[in-house]
Amino acid sequence: MNHVDFNDLYSRDIEKDLGDYWALDQYRALQSHRRIYDAQAHIYAAAAVKQSARGKFLSEFAEKSGVGLQQSMSMPNGTLAHYIHGENSNQPGIVEYASFLTPSILGHEYRHAWQHLTGTMAIPAGSPEEMILRDRFIEADARAFEFATAVEYITAVGVKNNYARCMLGAMESWSKEILRYSEDEVLRLGQDAEALKQAMRYVFDRWISLTPRAEIYNTLSIEALEKTRKPGRLSRLFKGQVLDVVFDMLDPAAPPEKMFQYRGVTPAFVDGLVKRLGQMDETGDENYLTQTAGLPFTHDFYTRVHDFRLERVAASLKI
Known about the structure:
53% of the residues lie in helices and 4% in strands. It is built from 17 helices and 3 strands. Strands 1-3-2 form a 3-stranded mixed β-sheet, covered by helices on one side. The N terminus is likely disordered.
């Protein structure tokens, strides 16, 4: 059984000055502390994540469900961690991580485990647009819990803790903007559950609509479409990616029994999705998507979420 020295883990290491950690990028921040990337990283992170209320909930859910945690030396370039889900919602998956592991990274990946094992990832979509929106929402939700886990952990151990400071430095720039580059704001959110819930909604909205990262699915899919001209190949090439569904619907060689019934996004689909996706605990009483203010779930919002250029690219191919 691995033993964690909490006095060591949460010590206020004032001898090592990280400088302006708000200005650090993710890689430099993670490199600045041995506990984040040494051989014991998984022990520290697995213990530390439980210092966050959101992280504790997700960690205990993952442990109870049998979700694995292992290091992998074959992670895609730039990927810190990912969740490999089982074949169905009854089969737990594995969280794989590369060199770095922190409580916030675990919070993100354990949220994906929760989404998978509660069936949220498999909520039926009636159209390609709904499937795209569902998968965008799933990633945005994990980002929100990554943020909340970091804020609650840093509040618990204090901003003088270098392990905590590295997590602050490793945050996305827009997450730091939401925190106003302020230690006081971190502590305020960490001590005010309602304020943190609202901040999680800001993270969700920001990732969905404003950050370039949210467009990565479109970019990857467009590149694959442009390289592929033969019918039937895209479904295999796009396996595990979000936007293959659009091509499948446009593919004249696709079987007649298509999985979608209509185009566009229906209010009923989004209402059902956010009620399940925004749940913050086992009871489902707390929901950061339905109980906060944010971007309106309207047609204009959907239009911003979806990049219909993909359809034009697919339709223009000589199949």
